[in-house]
Design goal:
- The protein has 203 residues and is an alpha+beta fold.
- It folds into two domains: 30-166, Immunoglobulins (Immunoglobulin-like, Sandwich), CATH 2.60.40.10; 172-203.
- The protein has helices at 2-21, 173-202; strands spanning 34-35, 37-41, 48-50, 55-62, 76-83, 106-114, 118-124, 132-141, 147-152, 163-166.
- The protein is elongated, with a radius of gyration of 28 Å.
- The protein starts with a helix and ends with a helix.
Length: 203
C-alpha cells in the first residue's frame, strides 16, 4: 500500500510539472512559411525617413488568388521593420537565420493586431530606430501564437523597395551651437595667452 501511495505521488508530481512547463515553442523556419500576404508601404525606394519625425503607411491583405480556406487558421498579424542586407553586413546582432526564433532581421514592431483579412496602419518611426536601410514584413500567427505565413514589401532577395531611416544621433542643435561657442572661446583664449606670454618674453 505504501508503494502505491508513493507511485500516485510521483504521477501527480509529473503531471504538475508538465502542466507548469507547458508545450515547448514550435520550431518554425522562414523558408517553410507561405507568402500569402500582400504588403505595401508608403516609403518609396531610396526614400530617406527620419526617426521620431516621419511616418510610414503600411497596408496588408490576403492574396486574392489563394484558396478561400487558406486563412482559416489566421488569428494575429504582426508588422515589423526589417533590416535590408546592406545594413546587416558585418553585424551579427542583425543576422538573418532561417530558424525564426534565432532570426534578427526584424527587430522593430510596427503593429500587432487581430487578423482582419486586410488592414492599414500609419506608423510614426520610433526614436529608437537606428540609421539603416529597411523593408517591411508582416507575419501571420495562428491560435498557438506560431508563425504560419508572411508577406513583405521587398522581393525574395530583399533588394527592391528598400528605404533608409536616419536615426537620432543624440546631438541636438543647441548642443552643437554650445560646442561651437566653446570651441571658438578655447581658440580665442589660446591666442590671447600666447600673445601675453610673447610680450612678457620680449619685455
Amino acid at each position: 500500500m505504501a508503494g502505491m501511495g508513493s507511485s500516485k505521488t510521483t504521477i501527480a508530481l509529473l503531471f504538475l510539472i508538465v502542466c507548469c512547463v507547458g508545450p515547448s515553442a514550435a520550431t518554425v523556419y522562414f523558408s517553410q512559411l507561405n507568402k500569402t500576404l500582400i504588403v505595401t508601404a508608403s516609403a518609396n525606394e531610396s526614400q530617406v525617413l527620419h526617426a521620431g519625425k516621419d511616418k510610414i503607411t503600411v497596408t496588408w491583405a490576403l492574396n486574392g488568388s489563394l484558396a478561400t480556406n487558406t486563412a482559416d487558421s489566421y488569428k494575429t498579424v504582426k508588422v515589423q521593420l526589417c533590416y535590408a542586407p546592406v545594413s546587416q553586413k558585418d553585424r551579427k546582432w542583425r543576422k538573418t537565420n532561417d530558424l525564426l526564433k534565432k532570426d534578427k532581421t526584424c527587430q522593430f514592431d510596427v503593429i500587432k493586431t487581430a487578423y482582419p483579412g486586410s488592414g492599414k496602419y500609419e506608423y510614426l518611426v520610433e526614436r529608437e530606430v537606428p540609421s539603416a536601410y529597411y523593408f517591411v514584413r508582416a507575419y501571420v500567427y495562428d491560435a498557438s501564437n506560431t508563425q504560419v505565413a508572411y508577406g513583405q514589401t521587398t522581393d525574395k532577395d530583399k533588394k527592391t523597395n528598400i528605404f533608409q531611416i536616419v536615426g537620432i544621433s543624440g546631438r541636438t542643435l543647441g548642443i552643437e551651437i554650445c560646442a561651437g561657442v566653446f570651441s571658438a572661446f578655447s581658440v580665442s583664449a589660446l591666442i590671447y595667452f600666447y600673445v601675453v606670454e610673447t610680450r612678457k618674453k620680449n619685455n
